[in-house]
UniProtKB/TrEMBL annotation:
Top-level taxonomy: Eukaryota, Metazoa, Chordata, Craniata, Vertebrata
Superkingdom classification of source: Eukaryota
Main location group: cytoplasm
Name used for this protein in its record: Cytoplasmic polyadenylation element binding protein 2
Keywords: Cytoplasm, Repeat, RNA-binding
UniProt organism field: Sarcophilus harrisii (Tasmanian devil)
GO CC terms, sorted: cytoplasm; neuron projection; nucleus; synapse
Amino acid sequence: MLFSHLDCLCPSLLLCHSSRPSLNATFVSFLFPPPNSFHSRSSLFPIDDGLLDDGHSDQVGVLNSPTCYSAHQNGERIERFSRKVFVGGLPPDIDEDEITASFRRFGPLVVDWPHKAESKSYFPPKGYAFLLFQEESSVQALIDACIEEDGKLYLCVSSPTIKDKPVQIRPWNLSDSDFVMDGSQPLDPRKTIFVGGVPRPLRAVELAMIMDRLYGGVCYAGIDTDPELKYPKGAGRVAFSNQQSYIAAISARFVQLQHGDIDKRVEVKPYVLDDQMCDECQGARCGGKFAPFFCANVTCLQYYCEFCWANIHSRAGREFHKPLVKEGADRPRQIHFRWN
């Protein structure tokens, strides 16, 4: 029996665990990156701001994160899952040590939740936490130990007052970070949008389908993930094959993402590059430096140096345009943890 090694199985869930299919049976392979390039962000339009999403960078540690793999392809080891796993529906009285004890059998880990360092609380305030495993193989072992109900994975944990409570386990499959919808179309960064506030369960294929349904012409979608743990950061990118769809998307500014249990309003902006020359002077008025500003107004949609921005936007009708600047310092950073 697949779950015979589980310490506890909830009777209410036992009826639902039989013949659980493989998690990546329905995943769509992306076409462009080479087999060994499971990067820590959207591989076609990388942005490496080095910022993690849930405040776990303040963990004190003495052990470097190893590179761990759970599959082989053409003789090369390939990661399948992020080492960061969401766990929700925790008992309200379970503390960090008890969460760690509940999952330590799968391998060394750190327990984290948003704003943990600032709050100095021993209990996850909203009933969910993140498990940061040292080994990627630990995530696979955790998945194998789960039982499924209504397409969701569960494992039972206990607290001082609640015994065998099913909590949701939500792993992130790395192949869900990229999706090529139309491989025949060239990818144009100037027809690409940045989507902020993307719900973390949303896969690239789902983001692509939603945007294609709204605007048409989608050829690629990517989910941004953090450099260290390769877990979604809450942002994504969508590339369009035509200018009409691109302009329609950025003109909307906000989009309602609806898919399954997800219903969230997200922000849409042009994707800003940091290696573009000024479209007006081609670097002649700025010493050949890359343009720092991009105008997202549909009457412009151009990169400008400081001189040309001031010159063009002093004209009537353009004085209220606002520049977009690429955010974040593009420097990945290594993070150290103390594994429990």
